[in-house]
Amino acid sequence: MGVRQSFGLVMQPVTRDIAITVSDFALAMSAQNLFWGFLQPVAGALAVRMGFRPVMMAGAVFYAAGLLLFAFADGLLGVLLGAGALIGVALACTASAIALAVGSRAVSGGVRSLVLGAITATGSLGALLSAPLGQVLTTDYGWRAGVLGFLVLALGMLPAAWIAGRVDRLVLPAPAATDISAASPRAALAGAMRNLPFLVMTGAYFVCGMQLLFITTHLPSYLAICGMDPSLSASALAAIALFNVFGSLFFGWAGGHWPKLALLGGIYIARSLVLAWYFMLPPTPGTTIVFASLMGFLWLGVGPLVAGSVVEMFGLRWQAMIQGVAFMSHQLGSFLGAFGGGLLFDALSSYDLAWRLGVAMGLAAGIVQVAFTLLGPPPPAARPNPA
Asked: I want to staple 373 with a disulfide (CB 3.0 to 4.6 A). Which of 37, 251, 262, 267 is the partner?
């Protein structure tokens, strides 16, 4: 997760070196998120059928292959295939939905929300290493060296995937015949798509992805346009990663004490207000670090809340697949945030309209999520299905 959050650092040198536009680079990042999103339910279903270990191991290999192809790209096609398609496939097999499903099976229900927050937080620790490393290598030796540095870090996914695959040895209790966990994949998906609280959560998750990928893809470019020191981009991404550790742990803990869906809505509202505050002012190093810290705290705290909500609604067996459906919506939003932001910038030579749209949609999603959670029907609880 840390590596893929750091790709924005190489956008400016890549576009200069191989003569592609900002929207071309944003298209590759958008393709990555589309592959990730559309294949996430497939990877979740395969993990149930084949086991988590082979799915995660294959994803780690795809990740390394994608970074290698990206490092030697000499045009748009190489960037699209390497940083876009291959890494998108890899993320579907290794990243948040699969990792959280593994964690959900490995622990009991009483500590599950906190553990899911810890897993999400650990994903951000990677950015504390990959962002500074990528920035130093890119500045001193060029963007290709920066991507090869990411590749070295990504090789650590192979032993991690093998060890995490031990969860395949765990045997879940047999579900009741009426439990969605006993259903076929098609029936489980149909049940999820008839669940109104799940659909509202999934729609709000779309806006979440839009905001996050707009920031990670375009913040370094925005700071460069405003004449900020290039190192500020790496510092901002590192601040996001650091404070995301605290935010993920906090919201993981909070999800065990308060309604998860209401907390999700609160995150979207707070995030939108912070986004509006920052882009209304001329950027400075101080406001940029404060912005990154606040956004970091609100960054991936949604992960344990969404994963925990899916377990509460549908149980453990099909968690990775059903959570993958919600994540597909998130990634469609990511496509809009990354590629749409690039298109608007190329057309207007400004990010003003892009961030205004992001703020408006984020406020709307958060308000609807909170209102529905407090005033709408409670989500039906799944039958107990502990690890």
From this structure: 262
